[in-house]
Design brief:
The protein has about 400 residues and is an alpha+beta fold. Helices cover about 25% and strands about 25% of the residues. It has nine helices and 19 strands.
Amino acid sequence: MAPRPESVEDWCKLMPNLLEESGWICAVDTPEGALMHSRCAWGGHVIKLELKNITIQDAPAKTSQVLVRPEVRSLLQDLSPVEGLELQSVELLAPGEARVTAKSSWSLLRRMAVLFGDMANQVMDDFLCENEDSLSWHQKMRRDYPKRGDSACAFWKEDRAQLHCLILVRPEAQQDRFTTYVVLRAETRFAQWATDHFSRLLGAARLRAEALLNRPGIHRLRQTDERFYVVISMQSFKRGMPLLPALDVEHCCCEIDLGATKGLRRWRRWEPEPVGSRFRLGPYLRSLVKCLGAEIETYDSLDGQTLVPYQCVVLRSAWDPLREDLLSVEQLQRSAYRRANGGSSAPALQEEVTPRFVPMEDPPERWQHELEPRLVVRNTFWAVEGEECRELRPQRRFHTTPSAPHA
């Protein structure tokens, strides 16, 4: 059995046909939506709701920003509250990734508990019970994947390996129209007896999706989300690591009179830890801020993607109070760097830059043997051992964002 998916990429790699029609058994198909199910590669069944032609009023120009990051949605819930959902706490793990504690009184969950058995019963236990235990969901955002313009978030309970789901919103050809996919894993077999109720469930899910994506205040919340973080970059240090102010007891590589009035005359070479490591902007920026007597948290990923080493992300609320002093010190650092190394180039901090990402890796090794079913020959057809004969489809290869050469 393969491990559970803990990102949108995991879902797409474990189920290459995740957003396609092939490989799924359709229970209901209407012009406004479809409900499908399939055997799950890592045990149980997967249920998919495809909610078509949903209008999003004042949709962002960058459609990948339709869904708001979980930490922003939770920390600023008063800007755009969700009816029937009580958010209790949030723990920021990285930009676009957080643990969120919540309870819900949605009738839609009760209906799913009846139709889909164990999967939704666990949702009922978590969201609708009256106990006081903290019940946190791990949520991880991904944008522009698997297609440019997509907005998606993976959800899972860390203490329950069998409980996880995915929400993905994809733009349609017509402006402000979107298709929303909700994918859930169920422990039990698909409830064929409940076929007559699926159409009503699909309609209720569509109404809930429309309400969530168009709720009061959501436009303002998306705008806040767009400016919640600042992407910082540093390049042009081809003559060694950038510098830091040196204490009197520390060895320095150069002195500059320009920094004397600020007590920043002496400068030393920054050394990453452990010794011999490659440059990463995040640790250097934290060290530079520490020289100002302050602290700042940096992140090397954004919305589920790893940034190139010469970029990092910081909270705008943490960056703005330090910005003026930090850039002033960084300007002295450039002068010291030129004095120490000669030439006219020196490492320079840039803010509000376009993020550049490290190319995505192949599926983790932990999946390799678990995702390779044994093939047998039956008459002249290929089949997976233990299943009926079926046509085998090659896995799709998804495009990645190329990164620039290291500085």
